[in-house]
Design a protein that fits this description.
Blueprint: E1 41-42, H1 45-71, H2 73-80, H3 86-102, H4 104-118, H5 120-138, H6 144-147, H7 150-166, H8 169-180, H9 186-214, H10 217-222, H11 227-230, H12 232-244, H13 250-259, H14 264-271, H15 275-280, H16 283-314, H17 319-347, H18 349-373, H19 376-394, H20 397-400, H21 410-426, H22 429-440, H23 445-463, E2 478-479, H24 482-501
């Protein structure tokens, strides 16, 4: 586990210790720390890699489960919402899709505070179990033709379980990686979380594309659609195993240690901060979180969840080719993702996110016009442009959002703010845009919707503080080596002496 000490590789003091040593020199493991030295976390590279890998792989499995629904939405409309009107079918299917997002804030209000109380790792294991159960259950539901109205009701219940589970997923996984990562690499390491999300989407889209290509329409409607959902069972077991092997983050472990100190009663009270304090006590950060998540998720769900159905239902494009284009765009995003994360470490989160907002404001209409042109090349270019712009958000948000909140409320406040924004704006994107197109007949609505989101995101970026290469609020600096820790301590001492002299 990462430790708070500037000791070079080798035996390290326990979490929370403070040591004062020249580069390469190891103080006695059990020596009393000098109280004048600031705390510094020296991360264990092996533990960081394990934490990032497990969080990203678990996230991939969660979002394979959650994303499959959108990629097979047209087929689900035939199975659960039979109607002669394709638009009405799609509205009903995406209505169930949106319902899962409406319950996400409830999941965030439950799992977020719980993660701040009992630990990030335990809650992430719980969310994995619930997602696997909810997704597996969808694969077992009889069709509308078999049990009538009971079929869409059961589908809705399963989606609500999925949504409740997801309410604790992103806030927990991003908090977990952010609290493990050294300050200088938080953007790069955080980018692997959304790499996992994209991998899950690619797995889901790839499987649905393969089934669509190999199975007849009758087979797909009768039994083929169940396959992606039934796979969730064994995948959930693997994901649970990975997450159970993780150790708790150093930031939360430090809170645990302080709770066992002579100030135990006060610390325990702090750990049980209510939702009111998590929301209104962090109101400025909460508003910034909502604005950033809005532009991130509106563009994300527009491109990765809605566009396959838009190509099929609105532009009458071949379903298989549409999914293949989306699949290729996501693979492109995965390739670029870590590099964009490194850029945010070097130049800052604000410039990278601002570039994405400006890009969506300027390029949404030209990109959608390319997509509407209809040829495979034009669609691919338009989708690729939107995908590369989206990477500016997917690569930076896992490091940006946790830095808005202090350790004691980070999981809870982030989960609540993130899921409120996703529920109101992100998850409803397919439903709202489909309804707007139906009401106005204007098939450019997706572009206008993304432009509006970009304006709101730009305002949030303007008002936020830069967090790259800086410690998380409420946590000590995190570095990779004892030499770096020594430099941080010396810099803090020089600053303190300068302040005392003045």
């Amino acid at each position: 586990m990462p430790t708070q000490s500037p000791v070079a590789p080798g035996p390290r003091p326990p979490i929370g210790s403070r040591a004062d040593a020249a580069p390469g020199q190891r103080p006695d493991r059990h020596a009393e720390p000098q109280q004048s030295s600031p705390k510094v976390t020296v991360v264990d590279p092996t533990m960081v890699k394990r934490a990032v890998s497990a969080a990203a792989l678990g996230n991939a499995m969660e979002w394979f489960d959650f994303g499959v629904y959108s990629y097979i939405a047209v087929t689900l409309g035939h199975v659960f919402f039979p109607s002669g009107n394709p638009t009405a079918q799609l509205l009903s299917t995406f209505g169930a899709f949106a319902a899962a997002f409406l319950v996400r804030p409830v999941g965030g209000m439950v799992f977020g505070p719980l993660g701040d109380r009992i630990g990030r790792q335990k809650v992430l294991a719980i969310t994995m179990i619930m997602m696997a159960v909810g997704t597996f259950a969808i694969g077992l539901i009889p069709s509308y033709a078999t049990i009538g109205v009971g079929a869409p009701i059961l589908l809705l219940v399963a989606r609500l379980v999925q949504g409740f589970s997801t309410g604790g997923e992103y806030g927990g996984a991003s908090t977990f990686i952010a609290e493990y990562a050294p300050d200088k690499k938080r953007g790069f390491l955080g980018s692997w979380l959304e790499f996992g999300t994209l991998a899950g989407y690619v797995g889901g889209a790839g499987l649905v594309t393969l089934m669509t290509a190999l199975l007849s329409t009758e087979d797909l409607n009768s039994w083929g659609w169940r396959i992606p959902f039934l796979i969730a069972g064994p995948m959930g077991i693997i994901g649970l195993y990975l997450r159970m092997r993780l150790e708790e983050t150093p930031a939360f472990a430090q809170l645990e240690k302080e709770a066992r100190s002579k100030e135990k009663a006060r610390r325990e009270a702090e750990k049980r901060i209510g939702i009111r304090e998590m929301v209104f006590g962090q109101w400025r950060s909460m508003l910034l979180c909502v604005g950033l998540v809005l532009v991130f998720n509106v563009t994300d769900y527009m491109l990765l969840s809605y566009m396959p159905s838009y190509l099929t239902s609105e532009l009458k494009y071949d379903e298989t080719h549409g999914l293949l284009v989306v699949l290729a765009v996501m693979v492109l995003m995965m390739v670029v993702q870590p590099f964009a994360g490194r850029l945010s470490d070097r130049f800052g989160r604000r410039p990278v996110i601002a570039a994405g907002c400006a890009g969506f404001l300027v390029l949404s209409v030209p990109a959608l016009l390319l997509i509407r042109q209809g040829s495979l090349l034009a669609i691919a270019l338009g989708m690729a442009a939107l995908g590369l712009l989206l990477v500016t958000f997917t690569s930076t948000m896992p490091a940006t959002l946790p830095a808005l909140f202090p350790t004691k409320v980070r999981y809870g406040s982030l989960s609540i703010g993130f899921n409120i924004s996703v529920s109101l704006f992100g998850g409803t994107t397919p439903l709202v845009v489909t309804a707007l197109i139906g009401a106005t007949g204007n098939k450019m609505m997706p572009a206008y919707y993304m432009m509006a989101a970009a304006v709101i995101g730009g305002i949030a970026v303007w008002r936020m503080s830069e967090s790259a290469r800086r410690p998380l609020p409420g946590s000590p600096p995190a570095v990779e080596t004892g030499a770096e820790a020594h430099e941080v301590i010396e810099a803090a001492r020089r600053k303190a002496k300068a302040g005392a002299a003045n």
